[in-house]
Amino acid sequence: MANTDCLPFFVEGEVVKGFGRGSKELGIPTANFPEDVVRSMPESLKLGVYYGWASVDGGPVLPMVMSVGWNPYYHNTVKTMETHILNKFKEDFYGLTLKVIMVGFIRPMENYPSVDELIKAINSDIALSKEKLSTPEARDFQRNNFFSSQPDSCSGSRL
């Protein structure tokens, strides 16, 4: 079980290129934080899948799911924070600022026997995040002043 003492968790950073698997192989594009932002995450925040809200460069605040960890299916040697924003974007937004509020924990990192099973799990995470983010308590974070100013609790990196 994840340590949720510091949830919600606020994090901000520049969107960088990832491994290129999200859009191409999985059909689930992600916005990736740079390694220094990932390294700044507190050790108490467990690896796994989280749900919350995201905004790119001051744009609309949209629901998101985020994988924080090593992605065991791909045998990553670098820990990543990959944010899937539940929205279709017309173009990539590398170099822009991504702000997220991690509101809740969905599940720990898991390995899967096939890419199809991984995609099925991610789609389940997306469905669960939509359900969790529809509550009044979760929707309050969508209007949090973090998206227009400084965070007010448990802040992460601001690069």
Automatic annotation (TrEMBL):
Pathway: Cofactor biosynthesis; FMN biosynthesis; FMN from riboflavin (ATP route): step 1/1
Molecular functions per Gene Ontology: ATP binding; metal ion binding; riboflavin kinase activity
Entry keywords, A to Z: ATP-binding, Flavoprotein, FMN, Kinase, Metal-binding, Nucleotide-binding, Transferase, Zinc
EC numbers for this chain: 2.7.1.26
Gene3D superfamilies: Riboflavin kinase-like
Biological process (GO), any one: riboflavin biosynthetic process
InterPro entries, alphabetized: Riboflavin_kinase, Riboflavin_kinase_bac/euk, Riboflavin_kinase_dom_sf
Domain Riboflavin kinase: 6-134
Root EC class: transferase
Entry GO terms, CC: mitochondrion
Tree of life domain: Eukaryota
Cofactor requirement: Zn(2+)
Catalytic reaction equation(s): riboflavin + ATP = FMN + ADP + H(+)
Function: Catalyzes the phosphorylation of riboflavin (vitamin B2) to form flavin-mononucleotide (FMN), hence rate-limiting enzyme in the synthesis of FAD. Essential for TNF-induced reactive oxygen species (ROS) production. Through its interaction with both TNFRSF1A and CYBA, physically and functionally couples TNFRSF1A to NADPH oxidase. TNF-activation of RFK may enhance the incorporation of FAD in NADPH oxidase, a critical step for the assembly and activation of NADPH oxidase.
Record's protein name: Riboflavin kinase
